[in-house]
Design brief:
InterPro entries: CCD48 (IPR031601). The protein is mainly alpha-helical and 112 residues long. Helices cover 77% and strands 0% of the residues. The protein is elongated.
Length: 112
């Protein structure tokens, strides 16, 4: 009986770890979708490869040293998201136009 109790506790801990990982991956997936949508908007606005490269290099430079306690992948995606939203081309685009295009369909969603 004691062995079954220990096994149950171990399985509960494993389940909690899996749930934590699932939530973390869900957050990463959400941030990745946001970044991909911004990249698609910038592509539609004909951003130059040079400008896009500068944004990417700036992101990588600011994320060179990971912050303690923060997932590095999420930190990079979050920084890239903020760098992209600060892009001058997106600042000039009317917000309503971007939202209406986004709400019609999401071509970035991949069904499994």
């Amino acid at each position: 009986l004691q062995q079954k109790v220990e096994e149950t506790e171990l399985l509960k801990m494993e389940l909690q770890m899996l749930e934590t990982e699932r939530v973390r991956l869900s957050l990463v997936e959400e941030k990745l979708m946001d970044v991909l949508q911004l990249l698609q908007q910038l592509r539609d606005l004909n951003i130059s490869k040079r400008a896009l490269g500068k944004i990417l290099l700036s992101t990588l430079e600011s994320c060179r040293d990971p912050q303690p306690g923060k997932a590095h992948l999420f930190e990079v995606l979050d920084t890239l998201y903020h760098e992209l939203t600060a892009c001058e081309l997106l600042q000039r685009q009317p917000l309503e136009k971007a939202r209406s295009r986004q709400s019609l369909s999401n071509p970035l969603v991949i069904s499994c």
